[in-house]
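Summary for the steering committee. The consortium agreed at its last meeting that each partner would contribute one worked example illustrating the joint modelling workflow. Our contribution is presented below. We chose a case with several input lines so that the handling of multiple components could be demonstrated. No manual editing was applied between input and output; the record is shown as generated.
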Amino acid sequence: MKPRVLILGGGFAGMFAAKELHRSLAGQVEIELINETNHFVFQPLLPEVAAGSITTRDAIAPLRLLLPGVKVRQASVFDVDVASKTVTIFQGLQRRYTQVSYDHLVLALGQVVDLSRFPGLSDHAFTMKNVSDAFRLRNHVIDKLEHADITQLPEVKKELLTFTVIGAGFSGIETVGEMKELIDRSLKFYPNIDPSEIRVVVVEFADRVLAELPESLASYAHKLLEKRGIEIKLKTGVARATGTSVTTSDGEVFGTRTIVATIGNAPSPLLQKVDIPKAHGRADVERTLRVRSTENIWSLGDCALIPMKDDAKDRKDFAPPTAQFAVREARLLARNIKATLEGSPLTPFDYKSKGALASLGGRRGVAEVFGMRLTGFSAWLLWRTYYLSFLPGFSTKLRVLLNWVSDSVLSRNTVQVKTQIQGGVSYVHYRAGDRIFERGNRADGFYTLVEGKVEQRIPGEDGKEIVRVLGPGDHFGERVLLGSGLRTGTVRALEDSKVLLLTAEDFLRLTDAFPALKAYFDDHVTRLTAATLKAPTPAASADAPAGNG
Amino acid sequence: MKPRVLILGGGFAGMFAAKELHRSLAGQVEIELINETNHFVFQPLLPEVAAGSITTRDAIAPLRLLLPGVKVRQASVFDVDVASKTVTIFQGLQRRYTQVSYDHLVLALGQVVDLSRFPGLSDHAFTMKNVSDAFRLRNHVIDKLEHADITQLPEVKKELLTFTVIGAGFSGIETVGEMKELIDRSLKFYPNIDPSEIRVVVVEFADRVLAELPESLASYAHKLLEKRGIEIKLKTGVARATGTSVTTSDGEVFGTRTIVATIGNAPSPLLQKVDIPKAHGRADVERTLRVRSTENIWSLGDCALIPMKDDAKDRKDFAPPTAQFAVREARLLARNIKATLEGSPLTPFDYKSKGALASLGGRRGVAEVFGMRLTGFSAWLLWRTYYLSFLPGFSTKLRVLLNWVSDSVLSRNTVQVKTQIQGGVSYVHYRAGDRIFERGNRADGFYTLVEGKVEQRIPGEDGKEIVRVLGPGDHFGERVLLGSGLRTGTVRALEDSKVLLLTAEDFLRLTDAFPALKAYFDDHVTRLTAATLKAPTPAASADAPAGNG
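What follows is the complete predicted structure of the assembly.
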């Protein structure tokens, strides 16, 4: 039987590893690639998807199309057992697991986004990892414009028209540039929004934008973005986020209903479960890309810490997590696996970057290629051409080109495709003083306080207000069960708070089906209604059960 | 102040009503249109979106772009108060309501899909009402092909490769034709699927397809679809549906994991709340399109029952719910509102259809235009040209044309864009005998039985199996709380059953945040674990609390 090479991950690293392995070892080994989705995501194009200049399907390509001769499996990896050389996976939405064996294992798991260090950010920020993120962001931005065009409340309008990007690396800068262009080109449809009301902010912890590029190019990009009306806050971190605000590390609070986080890259949690040596959470590989102290496990791309010299210590001694390097690593990986099978010596990784490119939106870019520096339109054109050449498949190339051409000529479409309002359970964060809901609001769900403190005010029978203070574990908003549709009381956060929100529909389905819960709320609502009707004195009300809505 | 005309609904009827009103009354009245989304959906193109021959954004167009001079508001209507001439709306995701007044109200609310008469269908079938539906269907079909390509289980593969469309009217036939084409063109990427394994079925209650068309054309369509390998079941209704099967009215059960329902059109629930005369759930209008016994309320399109002669009785005496008629109605509506404002007499509705067109996918169609009958490629070309001419805006026209051309030349993209796995609470239906989950499966959620009866088998300590029978209100699967990740027992439906499923993540968040629930399950799981460890006799186990997983 032929040796089996199993690749986990279908990003730049995994996809090109499969391609290169097939090129040099087709017929001699069996190659299989396992990925969560059936397509390769061309991440550098996601900001363009978010801006609507290309469509979702042009930023992705089916792995099967890209990898003829390679077995592609769409599955999620549950466990890797190094001792028995097997990987346990779940295919699609199947609940039955499947075991896949290997002779050589290639870990190309990339990185994940971990925003848990920033309270509220993971619950309220968009990320730019996959094509759904980009698609949702685009619809979200248009939704904010729609809403801003009709709202009568100046404070709300200000929040709606403030768009925030966190992080000013490649992804952050391209996102903020494309987002600004989308907004600028859409404004003609919104007669009640004045261009001066738009605020687009990028927040960066470092002291400059585009740390990946030379100082002079970054400085050009900085000036150009500012000239286009983008506000850049350097040396500024994020302390917390809510659905309507960002608090910076300086303590500044600004209202915003759109937050895109391009920070927080973290090692893949799956990699942590694999029993191999790690360094800084990444696979600890030799310069040959073989994982230290193993014979048949390899790693490349963002999930591996790849030394580029023998006594690598400094950050710049290791391969940077870019597509350009991943493609080079893939080439070496195929060569070294071939050498291993043939018993020849392995080659160490060594590569010098040929340059860097960034799009700034609005047909401007910055580039450094083979030592040459380009700015403005020429850099942007180079960026497009480079990525077009990179795009896999003639159909995709042609379609992207057609889209780019038609986008230059035609007006941009501001259609908003609503993915249905998300059901289920979500966390929502509030700052001290925020109103969670008020009397007369649509009753949209059931709230349980997870952290913080809130104050609830309900009108009593005799016109006196009943005031309750709720803490973690207390709940409110369960009057949606009574079906009036509108809130009777007002709830405000007294401290920074985190609540668990269950949509009204889901809450009703759950209490309906589940007798223990139904009994609890029947009892609770009865007591509550009685308490409200009796219009208790403030002393009595303090003892009343916490929870109402 | 100018009289205010308020239009509710932005489909064919509402959009064209706004257009025609603006054309004939611009400057004399204020026109406002309120719609749930910011775009007009070109419904006849949704099957093409689902098949991937055009993209989502080409089947929709922004209402603001289509309606210059008309105020467009993206909002959901909460209530209409005829007495005070005000409409209460919620804008976007806002929870604060807004009141909008009118002098003339135009109800163009269309129809909704109501599948509640068919057990399981609303929880397991796709509909084809908006662009998200089409988008999700496309991704679902590709997901089934991905899964079928790798599964080892023949029974599962058969279910995965059976695609069912319910209803053989325009929408059903176009959907089944386009779906078949998508599958046929995708198969080359799935080496383990043989074309003979694909089964595409359309189920129709009537005794023929395309009841809207003359017999001879319908018969041509029928033969052509059969020739292309589509199975057509006439005189067959749907009795029930689950996630893996359809039961027909004949009692036949066939396995299928893709169900598209194009039946079940029902009057808009909002219309029922408006205090005006109704007939068969639709607005009861005079031939002038004015709602009977009102002065200033008008209705058109699918939500109105529009007589085309004075003593209308028969079905054919009323305007059919098609786009062609809606556009004509819109023209008359504008004329009659103008006449009302000027005090002139109103004109009754009268229109004869100019023909009908249907696409069958695979570049074939059927058409009857001005009495002429066309079939095959010429009918299909006419269909495309007709809809292209209909498409609003030059950009959209050009883009759709480019897409159609490139689709003829290039291979179709089988990329699957996963919208995240839906969280929250959903209903799942099972037939008697179905396995809900089995030992070793991934623990994907918490189940509460709503209807029916299930049997649970858990291995006891001494190797004996514990068997429990659960009924409505009982729950199982709560061991996800213990976090082992895999099921320890097996659950089967003893009767046709309906369960409420809460995803594992949401269940954990909820029990975590909500003390009453946490206490209940802590107690429950403790008792359960004790019971299992004691390995009770069958008699004892029958008394144990129902619920486990």
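Residues 121-263+356-409 of chain B form a domain with the FAD/NAD(P)-binding domain fold (CATH 3.50.50.100). Chain B is about 30% helix and 25% strand.
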